[in-house]
What does this fold into?
Amino acid sequence: MTSASTPSRKDDPANLTSEIQSETRIVVANQWQLIWWKFRKHRLAMFAGLVTLLLYAVALFAEFIAPYAPGTYSAAHTFLPPQTIHLFQNTADGWRFYPHVYGHKVQVDPESFKRTYVVDEATAYPIGLFVRGEEYQLWGLFTLDLHLVGAVQHGDPVHLIGADRLGRDVLSRTIYGTRVSMSVGLVGVGLSLLLGVILGGISGYYGGPIDNLIQRTIEILRSLPTIPLWMGLSAAIPLTWPPVRVYFAITVLLSLIGWTTLAREVRGRFLSLKTEDFVIAARLDGLRELPIILRHMVPSMTSHIIASVTLAIPGMILAETALSFLGIGLRPPVVSWGVLLQEAQNVRSIATAPWLLFPGLAVVASVLALNFLGDGLRDAADPYQT
It folds into this structure.
C-alpha cells in the first residue's frame, strides 16, 4: 500500500509567496531601513537605547523630576541616610495604601559626640506623584511648582537617597548633574565630529603632504599622556570665569583631544571610497572637491560615523567626570556627576555616608548604555554582514 506524497513545507505556495515578498522587501529597502531592521534584532542594544533616551529625558526635564532644587539645603539633616519608601500603613481600620517615609531622630554619642540617625516610626511623611513644591523655571520659559515625586506637604524632609554634608538632597543633585554630564558628551562629540570629518576627509581625499601633516599631528596628540595634558589645559582656564564659560571651555578642551580617533576612521574610509566609480564619475562631471566630499563620500559612511560618535560619547562623559573629580574641570556651583563625586573623595566621607557614591552609579549606567548602543549601531551599520 503506497501513501500519497504530501508536498513539503518548502514547496508550499504560501511559504514561497512569503519568501518572495520578504526578498523583494529587502531588495527595495533603503540603507536606513536595513540598518533599523538589523538593529532591532539586537535586544541589548534596544534596551540600551531606551536607557539612553531615559537619561536624556531626565536631563531635559530635570527641574520637574527632581524633588528639590540642587542648592536647597537643611542644616538639621546633614548626612541624613536614605529613607525607605513604605506603601502601606497599619491603622485602627486595618491596612491602607499610604506611600510614606519615616522621619528620623538624632542621637549624639556622649563620648565621641558623633551624630547618628534613628528611624522614628511615630513620624510619617506622605509622598506622592505630581506634588506641589519649590518653584522653578522650566527651560527658562515657564514658572512651575509641580514635581514628579516628593513630599505631599511642602517642607517635609524627604530624601530618598540621603543628604550630603550640607543637607542637600543627593537624588535631586544627581538628576541635575545628568543635564551637565550628558550634554558635555553630546556637545564635545559634536565638535569632535566636525573636526574629525573635515580633517580626516581632507587627509584621506588629498593624500600627499597634507595627509602626512595631519597624520603626524594626530600621532603627536595621541602620544601625549591624557591626564597631564588635561591638567595643563585646564590650568589655563581663569578661576574668575563664570560657570557657563568654564563649561564650554572644558567641552572645547575635550573635543580638541577626542577628534583624532574619528579622523583616522574617516581617513581610512575616504582612501577606499575615492577610487569608487561614483566618486570618479562625479569628478569627471566637473564637480569640485568639497561637494564631492560632502554630497557623495560623507553620506555613504553616515552609519559608520553615527556608530563611532555613539561610542565616543562615553569617553567624553568619563573625561568630564575625571576632570571634575580631580578638581580641574567643572567646579561648584555647577552640578555634574564629577563635581558630586568630589564629596566622596576621602574614606571618612564614604564611611559616614556611602550614598554619596550614587552619582558614580549614574556614570556607570550611562557609559554601559551608550557602549551597548554603540555596539548595536556598529553591527547594524553594515546590514549585509551576517
Summary: The first strand starts at residue 86 and ends at 91. The radius of gyration is 28 Å. Residues 74-165 form one domain. The chain has a mean pLDDT of 82.
